[in-house]
Amino acid sequence: MATLRLFASIREIAGTNSLEVDANNVGDAITEACARYGDDFAALVPSCRIWVNGNPAELTDSVTTQDEIALLPPVSGGSLNHDSLNAPHTGLHIAILSLHTSPLAQPGTGDSGGMNVYIREVASALAHRGATCTVYVRKWDPELVHELELESGVHIVHIEAGEYELQKEDLYSIVDLFADRVMKDLQNREPIDIIHANYWLSGIVGHKLKHELNIPLVTTFHTLGETKKNSGFPEPTERLRAENEIIGCSDVVVANSANEQEQLCNLYGANIDRVEIVPLGVEQALFSPGNPNAAKDALGLPTEPILLFIGRLQSLKGADVAISTLQAMDHKNATLVVIGGASGQEGSYYESEIRDLANNLTVDKKVVFIPPQPHHILSSYYRAADIVIVPSRSESFGLVALEAAACGVPVIASSVGGLQNLVEDGKTGLLVKGWNPAEYAEAVDYLLSNPFKSTEIAMNAVEKAQAYTWGQTAGRLQELYQSVLSKTLVECR
Length: 493
Fold this sequence. Notes:
The structure is a single chain. This protein is an alpha/beta fold. It has three domains: 1-75, Beta-grasp domain (Ubiquitin-like (UB roll)); 80-281 and 469-493, 3-Layer(aba) Sandwich (Rossmann fold), CATH 3.40.50; 292-468, Rossmann fold, CATH 3.40.50.2000. The protein has 19 helices and 19 strands. It has helices at residues 8-14, 26-37, 39-44, 82-85, 114-128, 175-186, 199-213, 225-230, 237-249, 258-268, 292-299, 319-328, 344-359, 375-384, 399-406, 419-422, 437-449, 451-465, 470-485; strands at 2-6, 18-21, 49-52, 55-56, 68-72, 93-97, 132-138, 147-151, 154-159, 194-198, 217-220, 252-255, 275-277, 306-310, 334-339, 365-370, 387-390, 411-414, 430-432. The strands form three sheets. Strands 8-9-7-6-10-11-12-13 form an eight-stranded mixed β-sheet, sandwiched between helices. Strand 15 (334-339), helix 13 (344-359) and strand 16 (365-370) form a beta-alpha-beta unit. Helix 5 packs across helix 19 (470-485), helix 12 (319-328) runs parallel beside helix 13 (344-359) and helix 15 (399-406) packs across helix 18. The termini are far apart.
């Protein structure tokens, strides 16, 4: 079935952000939603913009089961929760830089992941507070329009820079071209107040724009080259050099966790007074506890123990550890569900390796590979899982662990990076030092054999997850924006 995504005020009327529809065209999908959600919903539909897969669409356009239809009201009414009702409204114009990946891309595909979710949710939550967010992304497909409006106050601008098929490793060569074309686009818009760069490639662009426009630069790295290098993943010298320069010139560096703040200070000599911790959020209406047996039945999964791994198929995320953990478990007839995709030659090689690993498991252990899924479907997989395993070799925050916690599913995670702050060992999940599958298997068997302990951890995790909202993330960022606007710009060190 096709997916109908709802935004802003029409989402509030429906009480959900998405709906699976059995329809042959856009009009049929919307008619089904109107019948389900009533007159107030139907009355707002004529004023909405309609997209299919990120492009403007008409009611007569046909759709398939793979398509995503979006309904966007003309004015963002915000989210009707405590965060929004009490949020200060400002007129800031923020240029959000995301050179290498788009908030429109499906997380888990290519180089898309938690950063995509972060930018989409933060921009939306900032817009609900009266800000205007212009998000700059490199155009990776010739069919993409130059600009589209995600919702009122959130504009996605696709910048022509380099060959469409450029791999992430080759993007460093086009950062200056990207910066020049972003600058040209900004000259035709209302003046911007803040540059918020995401990832080191965008940080280089933000650094250049800061000096040309004389406005503050806020940077969120999401991952750090020095941290990856220390985890055994070599990074190019230009990245390490650029990160040092960006940190030295940023008016604020946003760390997703206390652990990342510590890494920024210890590995890069960052001034701790300019490194602010702003945790990520989770969409509470979507990620919440549910009936695991019903979820398993709906997804066609067995009733026996289900382990879940969600992430890109790359060594950094540790899908190999998850598969080897399944083999080392004492529990029989267990299934590991792996949701994610590979990117580039290295990713294809890794995927081939882990599929061979899965094919050599004993007959009572099974791995099911699932392609990347939209968030509204991921929530069902979380609820179907008995345990979510997060064996990352490096992690600045751990969005998968947070989403699992919000769904009331125990998490077993590696004791690295932001996972050390997010998961309270023995209380909201279990942390494992290193990547020995036998130790992960011991933790899995322990929880499967102790349902009361597993339930206690799940309940604690849900309670802790409720403290993380995208509204709070955006609110804290807004405070930082206002703070740097009242200060003298930081000079490059």
